[in-house]
């Protein structure tokens, strides 16, 4: 029965309801639920909960996933990632070259794979960036 009392108190505290029992388990549950309620409804911690800040929070989002993806960031991000990929592969090719295997089949295979996968990645990300930019423009004009 004490677990049920704790759960009832927790739910009452979580919903910011009045405490309606003097049972110790209920009060402990209510205290935990009230702390959860206060945390999740904290206007300083979550300014988007304030009515007056609702418009400003939608304009200035702190979540990186909510930031609009621009065509430039898609293109330059893919170029930066490709350069990092090529730097990593260059280390592997350097090890082949130091080992005296620069004329081998594997050296050519790794080189060709790195070159064309990097170029392909840039092209794919550019196409995706263009499609997203077009979709965003269509959405902005329809709103």
Specify the structural class: mainly alpha
Mean pLDDT: 75
Cα distance spanning the termini: 54 Å
The rough form would be described as: elongated
What is Rg? Answer: 28 Å
- According to DSSP, the number of beta strands is 0
Overall helicity: over 70%
Largest sheet: none
What percent strand? under 5%
In the predicted model, the low-confidence regions spanning at least 5 consecutive residues are: 52-58, 60-66
N-to-C SSE string, H for helix and E for strand: HHHHH
Task: Describe the overall structure.
- Helix content is 71%, strand content 0%.
- By secondary structure, it is an all-alpha fold.
- Helix 1 (2-14) runs parallel beside helix 2 and helix 4 (71-98) packs antiparallel against helix 5.
- Residues 52-58 and 60-66 have low confidence and may be disordered.
